[in-house]
Amino acid sequence: MTKLPKLYIALESDIKEGKVTDVYFERATEVIRKFKLDNVSVAMEAHAYSLPSGYEWAALGGIEEMAHVLEGKPVDVYAMEEGTIFRMMEPIVRLEGNYASFGYMESTILGILRHSTSIVTKAARCRLAAGEKTLLFFGIRCVHPAIAPMVDRSAFIGGCDAVSGVLGAEMINEKPVGTMPHSLIILFGDQVRAWKAFDEVMPTEVPRITLCDTWYDERVEAMMAVNTLGERLYGVRLDTPGSRRGNMRKIALETRWALDMAGYRNVKLFVSGGIDEVDIMNLRDVVDGFGIGTCIAFPPSVDIALDIVATGDRPISKKGKLPGKKQVYRCNEFHDIVTSYDRVIDRCPLCGGSVEPLLKPLMLQGRLVREIPSAKELRNRVLEQLKKISTIKDFRSEPYFLC
């Protein structure tokens, strides 16, 4: 009798061995070998031919994990840097080698790229909406714990200032953030007792941010917090459930006014609980920071596909896709030019500025040939690009094409 799993998760070894695949890839591989097509070399490109509604760009995630699962396989990989902002129809990754040696990994490769990219992109959009205000990711309760570290990493790369997940933060060499849940206050049966206990137990480097919406009006609890902790109080957090919320902007304004009137202008005001981009933009002039969960953990999906674009030296593709290996060049004005792979350009045809190719060697015959940046370095890369594109008035969702 087969032993049933305790958790329905794939082990790292299962993923690397290609066990997480769709059965038709296994069947295709069987047919390929039967008809001795094992040595047919192909080029496959990953790209998004459409983006979620309202999106003009996406930010690439999952490159490090993709490289890990392809390590040791006879495949060459050319890829954009993780964290790169890209447009529709641009190749973000190219794989070259005998199809039979890596084709069965398509489901795994796409799962990694698509999920991570979707989270990085949504986090980056929230970062833009928040401006300079603090943006914290509290979303691991929204996902299966097996992938929580991946979700934390992607949210951080996309621009969140910190994450709450203990293991996720450890894996990206960051410190987790967060203060107290409602359950702590409920167990004490009294907000003041809970806040005092937290203040007594926690080390000084943990900011005293009190949760101020458990039983009473938010303004009332905020004033209770300042009267309890005084100058030790760093901030108050409003996590009012949607069913009781009313107008969150007015609640935040009222709480801010009460704190200021009492002489506590230095006390920060944080809002969490079902916050999305629109809420961030509506509240950012009133509050000091946001705790974001579901909207980043479960973002609109960036529809990345992986398609054959060449067999041997012959450009070929299914209908609806552009055949042939391609390169993407970018200038300092953020113009993107997609060219055929063998067409090398050194100047932007639109503005005349110098360009650099975005698809660069990542792996040769399954061996990593490019250093993988740290999560913090990738986050900085995303922030630099966000700053750039926020100044572009005519940003286009499609690149320019030069065959």
Report on the structure:
It contains 15 helices and 19 strands. The chain starts with 11 loop residues before the first helix and ends with a strand. Helix 13 (277-283) links the parallel strand 10 (268-272) and strand 11 (289-292). Helix 8 crosses helix 9 (191-201). It is 36% helix and 19% strand. The chain is elongated and about 75 Å long. The chain has two domains: 12-119 and 300-402, nicotinate phosphoribosyltransferase (Alpha-Beta Barrel); 131-297, Aldolase class I (TIM Barrel). By secondary structure, it is an alpha/beta fold.
As for the CATH topology of the largest domain, it is nicotinate phosphoribosyltransferase
* End-to-end C-alpha gap: 58 Å
> Taking all residues together, what is the mean pLDDT?
94
Q: How are strands sequenced across the largest beta sheet?
A: 13-12-1-5-3-17-18
Give the structure's gist in a few sentences.
This protein has 403 residues and is α/β, with parallel strands linked by helices. It has 15 helices and 19 strands.
Question: Could you outline the blueprint of secondary structure elements for this entry?
Answer:
Elements: H1 12-16, H2 23-34, E1 41-48, E2 58-59, H3 63-70, E3 76-79, E4 85-86, E5 93-98, H4 99-102, H5 106-130, E6 134-137, H6 148-157, E7 162-163, H7 166-171, H8 182-188, H9 191-201, E8 209-211, H10 218-229, E9 235-238, H11 242-245, H12 248-261, E10 268-272, H13 277-283, E11 289-292, H14 294-297, E12 304-311, E13 314-315, E14 326-331, E15 336-340, E16 355-357, E17 360-364, E18 367-368, H15 375-389, E19 400-402
Parallel strand pairs: 6-7, 6-11, 8-9, 9-10, 10-11, 15-19
Antiparallel strand pairs: 1-5, 1-12, 2-4, 3-5, 3-17, 12-13, 14-15, 14-16, 17-18
Helix pairs in contact: 3-5, 5-6, 5-13, 8-9, 9-10, 10-12
